[in-house]
Amino acid sequence: MSQWRGPHRRATAPALRAHRRRPTDDGGNVNDDKETDMVQRVGVVGAGQMGSGIAEVAAKAGSDVLVWEGKQEALDAGRARIEKSLAKAVDRGKLSAEDRDAALGRLTFTTELADFADREIVMEAIIENKEVKESVFRQLDEIVTDPGAALCTNTSSLPIQAIASATANPGRVIGLHFFNPVPVLPLVEVIPSLTTDEAVIERVTSYATGTLGKTAIRAKDRSGFIVNFLLVPYLLSAVRMVEAGVATKEDIDTGMKLGANHPMGPLTLADMVGLDTCAFIADVMLEEFGDPAYACPPLLRRMVQAGHTGRKSGKGFYDYS
């Protein structure tokens, strides 16, 4: 494992200090028979765009954050991504240099899943592949020693129950779906499976809202959950309009921005989400629901095959090079 070496390694965020206060009754008096469930040690599996964003937010909130990637190069890239994001926040006046260093000091990086043994919440954000996720969760279930620890998946579409059922303790597994960019968007979806323990739901929801400062909405375990169930057909419809020559991509985006008061058009949004991600979610939802509204348009499929996956590749419906 490696830690970021900064001048504020032991600094404690105000949010964390606040959560460590002794519980009180309604009159503000200390009530020693109430125990807090303050989560301090969290793990993030995956240091890609989503994983690094989750790790950044957790570190800024005062958590001790352990970040895993299987390869050192990917781990180094994730560390650099977090450092760059925090540096931008300082440059824009949204974060002090002291708070940046304190957040970086709470981050530790590893290529060994075994280091997650003492984590209280683990948040997985790796490739959207059911078999790969199941394998990782089987390992985490054996490694993480706290029986009440929550094992969260950031999947945007895969069944939580399938991932949970791959473990010996499915009650610990829950969906916790963040939105990109994680440091900016305030929403998380909390998705229990049929076997998720109520205490795990409460722990995860409390951490997401009380510590991370997110707004949590709860969804049933069905493909797409809430947001993507509504969003993906909208994005696919915009792609079909381009494909059919109904309008230019610019006019489609302008129409939805000015006519529906959306902050960005559907094709710009698809590029930001990732066209490969859009295609993958569409395929999963089509398989589950059988609704042709979720069928991936040929144009989208060809763009993904060409490596034009949006902002992250430098080219999608728009050019970002």
Automatic annotation (TrEMBL):
Q: Where is the 3-hydroxyacyl-CoA dehydrogenase NAD binding domain?
A: 42-221
Q: Which GO terms describe its molecular function?
A: 3-hydroxybutyryl-CoA dehydrogenase activity; NAD+ binding
Q: Where is the composition biased (Basic residues)?
A: 1-22
Record-level GO BP terms = fatty acid beta-oxidation
UniProt keyword list:
Oxidoreductase
Checking PANTHER family in the record gives: 3-HYDROXYACYL-COA DEHYDROGENASE FAMILY PROTEIN (PTHR48075), 3-HYDROXYBUTYRYL-COA DEHYDROGENASE (PTHR48075:SF9)
Q: In which pathway does it act?
A: Lipid metabolism; butanoate metabolism
**Species of the source:** Corynebacterium bovis DSM 20582 = CIP 54.80
Highest taxon in the source lineage: Bacteria
UniProt entry tagged with the keyword Nuclease:
no
Query: 3-hydroxyacyl-CoA dehydrogenase C-terminal domain: which residues?
Result: 224-320
Question: Could you tell me the EC number(s) of this protein?
Answer: 1.1.1.157
> What name goes with this protein?
3-hydroxybutyryl-CoA dehydrogenase
Coiled-coil residues = none
SUPFAM superfamilies in the record = 6-phosphogluconate dehydrogenase C-terminal domain-like (SSF48179), NAD(P)-binding Rossmann-fold domains (SSF51735)
> Does the keyword Oxidoreductase belong to this entry?
yes
Region of interest (Disordered), ranges:
1-37
Give the UniProt family note: Belongs to the 3-hydroxyacyl-CoA dehydrogenase family.
* Site, Important for catalytic activity: residue positions: H177
Gene3D superfamilies linked: N-(1-d-carboxylethyl)-l-norvaline Dehydrogenase, domain 2 (1.10.1040.10), NAD(P)-binding Rossmann-like Domain (3.40.50.720)
Q: Which InterPro entries match?
A: 3-OHacyl-CoA_DH (IPR022694), 3-OHacyl-CoA_DH_NAD-bd (IPR006176), 3HC_DH_C (IPR006108), 6-PGluconate_DH-like_C_sf (IPR008927), 6PGD_dom2 (IPR013328), NAD(P)-bd_dom_sf (IPR036291)
